[in-house]
Amino acid sequence: MSANAVAKAAGGVVSIAKKQTLQSTGIWESFRKALAIDPNRSNGVPLNPYYRLPAPGSNDPASFEDPVTLPAGDIAGNPYWKRDTRRNYPQLSVVSQADVVSLLTVGSAVNPKVELIGEAGEKALVAAQQEGQTTGLAKALAKATPKDVAKDLFVNGLPPLPSGQSLSSGEWNVHKYELTDRSYPDGYPCRSFQ
């Protein structure tokens, strides 16, 4: 940049006559200058012959081709539900009463009650789920002995902790809580502005 251009850019106010904007003329210009807060400020509407290349309506509408970007523009392989981030909620996991009854009667893959392998295990699992759907959890709990239910549901005679930790160590530090001077601690992903 030359020194004149820098001085012109930093010089401040440019007269309205040098601006390429539509302005009022005649008595209305003097009226605008008398009532305006800043008389040297333009209205910002550009002159029609300038900055209008190509002019609106000069292009043939049939010659325009919509630019398609792949894969975003491919409608067949890019449905809206896949790219809809506003409604992309985490899916809830639901355990029905039939699932709980089958866990109580047959057990899980980690902790099976009866050694059922192959088709016998599949049949027992299907039968337990059908029993849970027809009778429900209350009848399955009433049918089972309290010791078996307590052995399956409780950990060392106590209900399981939400975090999955055990209280045998005597401490339960899942989330450390400390008082800080600010409203949010450093580990919290939130900024507070002053």
Outline the structure in words.
- With 194 residues, the protein is an all-alpha fold.
- Helix content is 31%, strand content 0%.
- Helix 4 (97-105) crosses helix 5 (119-134).
- The chain is elongated, with a radius of gyration of 38 Å.
- This is NADH-ubiquinone oxidoreductase 21.3 kDa subunit.
- InterPro entries: NADH_Ub_cplx-1_21kDa.
What attributes characterize this protein structure?
194 residues; 7 helices; NADH-ubiquinone oxidoreductase 21.3 kDa subunit; NADH_Ub_cplx-1_21kDa
Characterize this entry briefly.
By secondary structure, the chain is mainly alpha-helical. It is 31% helix and 0% strand.
Residue stretches low in confidence (pLDDT < 50, at least 5 long) are none
What order do the helices and strands follow?
HHHHHHH
The count of strands amounts to 0
Summarize the amount of helix as a percent range.
Answer: 25-40%
**Morphology:** elongated
Count, helices: 7
Overall SS class: mainly alpha
Radius of gyration, in angstroms, nearest whole number: 38 Å
The biggest beta sheet, please? none
Averaging pLDDT over every residue, what do you get? 75
Distance between the termini: 39 Å
Query: What percent strand?
Result: under 5%
Write the layout of secondary structure elements.
Elements: H1 3-10, H2 27-35, H3 80-83, H4 97-105, H5 119-134, H6 137-143, H7 146-153
Helix pairs in contact: 4-5
